[in-house]
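Q: Joint fold for the lines below.
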Amino acid sequence: MISRIKTIALHTYKESVREKVLYNLVAFALLLIGAAVLFGSISLGISQMFLVNLGLSSISVFGLLMAIFIGIGLVSKEIERRTIYNILSKPVARFEFIIGKYLGLLLTLTINTAIMTVGFYAALFYIQRHLVLADWVPLQCIYFLLLEFAIVVGVALFFSCLSTPILSATFAFCVYVIGNFLSDIRGFGQESGSATLQKVTIVVSYLLPNFSNFETISRTAHGLPSPPYLVTANTCYALLYVTILVSASVLIFETREFR
Amino acid sequence: MLAVEITDLTKDYSVGFWRKRPRRALDHVSLQVEAGEVFGLLGPNGAGKTSTLKILLRLVFPTAGRARLLGYDLHDLRLHRQIGYLPENPYFYDHLTAEELLRYFGQLCGLQGPPLRRRVEALLEQVGLTDFRGVALRKFSKGMIQRVGIAQALVNDPQLVFLDEPMSGLDALGRRDVRNLILQLKAQGKTVFFSTHILPDAEALCDRVAVLHRGRLHGCGELRTLLQSRASAIEMVLENPTDEVLHALAPFCSSTVRTGARVRVTLPRESDVERCLEVVLRLRAKLISLNPVGMSLEDFFMAQVGTPAEHRGEPEPKGS
Amino acid sequence: MKPESSSLQSGQVARRLCALLILGAFAALWPLQRAINREREKLPPTAENLYFTSGHLLRRLSLGYNGLLADLYWTRAVQYYGRRRLAHAAHYPLLGNLLRIATDLDPHLLIAYRFGEIFLAEKSPEGAGEPEAALQLVRRGIVANPSYWRLWEDLGFIYYWDLKDYPMAARAFETGSERPGAYIWMKAMAAAVAARGGELSTSRLLWTEIYQTAQGKDVRASAVAHLIALDAAQQLSQLNQLVERYRQATGHWPRSFEDMITAGYLTSVPKDPTGVPYVLTPQGKVTLGPHSKVELSLLP
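A: Joint structure:
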């Protein structure tokens, strides 16, 4: 079972690497960081903060785009092009396929984020001419971003087991946007004064993935690390939520018919 | 041991966007395939051939009925180590080469290291793609893709191979290759279960066939018995027979067809042959040939498919 | 038809396991999310940031969705106000900017002018205490919506309440009264403000009008509170006059309301509009009872 999951994961990684889209996005992110370096050198004084803000934001944006589009593309393409027929005729259980796909996508994103991180630190070094110990703080933020990507890929996977690629992308994007506003939505429910609305918003805010848990870019730009407790809690949160999403995907995929 | 055992298999698809209506794709189909047989599932497009195969490969789930392969339950992964499947109009990952694809599927079947390499080599050799092993599949022609598809179906050296329309879209040469491949598999003692709507292929290859039409089984059995049991006749071909000859033969023959100088006379009863020959000798007509003819598969097929599907009360012909 | 026994069993096991995992994970998520919320609240807040300070720039970037974006910014302004209000923060540094961006994005977003103006002009802690900014906001609203008379009314109120500039207030009411559809009392208001700016009776007139026309429950409640305060203020001034008359007649301050009742100045112990008795101090000053709900601080 483990070896089959590994095989599928590695194949998924290979496939996404051979998709040219990935390179374009990476190149684009690197370009953006290059722009940060340029702008940073023009506006003196805050160049470092600006670079951290822009660099982390672009890692986040590109990671998310990749998570959604590759996440959806790679599974629904297997169904659409009927390559799934061949996989399932082999001694592969459906849940192995889903878990393998998920891990492959995660591997892709991790490697991709690692490349962007290297680019980011290169730019930081370029601006500061040296790196000090305190510069580890963005790494924590990138770790949080990675946890966020892990959930987004899960969301994309879940929807692609359920629907067509375009709809899946739309849904996944909506979930991401709503997930970012969950604390606002809960606040809105509390301020509305209606008990029902309040309850509904609270339930929704626990049910949907809460991406504002991982929101540390602006704190990081000010050089403020998050406490270790939050790192542990966020890791657990991501693990639990990924478990939910992958299980739900398996649940759907187990009963899905391929006509 | 039975390689394929299908009992009362029924499949309804729901169609329609808003109001789902069931559409019956398979209607209480039962058939059995012995190990070592080459079995053909025949029927026009939309007869339920692909549905049957998809149920057997757990791509769709039956509405009712049961099926077992090689004595295993369909969901038993031990079963999947022993079967291979070529889907209809297969498609494979564009970005891989033939070799990579076979390695991937081989790994999924649990092969690795030197045995995997040897197996991939052997398969590429078998389907004649050794020279194209490093070419990306997006550059492959339809026929080459079909060969890759067959190779991947055989990657785990399966006991039972399912081929869905293996000859479709191939040129004459490609079809001959696929036929030879199936015969090779038979010689190795494998069971081959394939679907086709091309009858000569089935005639050339199959030990037994089943005919599906609109989801119902319209006959299943050994090709020869299936055809002979239905009808047989003697065909007599004469050259330039006089009207007198034809007149004398008229009481015995069911049809006379004139093609240029020759006339083909069909005699439905074997017992009449002697008397007809007497007539021919007596009137000195020129006899070209005298042959017993079985019903061709095509005739049988047409006879079955041509029957209106309304005869619901008629008992289903069951497999042998 | 009985389903294939063992086949569905293996599928069923997987499905049950998944369902169980989902439920279990959600059950664990609930306390975890609460813990994360608590932990995040403990974090020292970083300075709040407005990434965009120009509504016009944002309008270009909004790709034609400026109406939607304006609504978003208006909502953000309301939430910003509400959240800080709940947190008892006395300052609203971003409020003016948020409102400006919202109205830049959609110059016809009347609600943003009308209520934004109130949030901005109100004295701290109820509002930002920036009447000048409120004035600017309303002025921009008037430029974009010249025929809408309510904005003139709002302008008049800012001058009247917050800036105490009665002549300007009167001029605003008067200009507004000339706009199509303006209520007739705008003229009366202008006249009243011009003639007797700052008197309690004018206030009563205004708040009564607001009470009668306002649709929002909160606004009406506020009007009632204002009217009660006005009544109490009027009663207080009358009572103090009575006390003064008593002193002039007897030569000493009354020690209690009973003294005044026996002297025939009052028929009973006076109560404020919320029913709480007034208090007479030894210095001869009438004040609200200690538990009175009247908010005299609402008055200018």
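Q: Anything notable?
A: Chain A has a mean pLDDT of 83. Chain A is about 80% helix and 0% strand.
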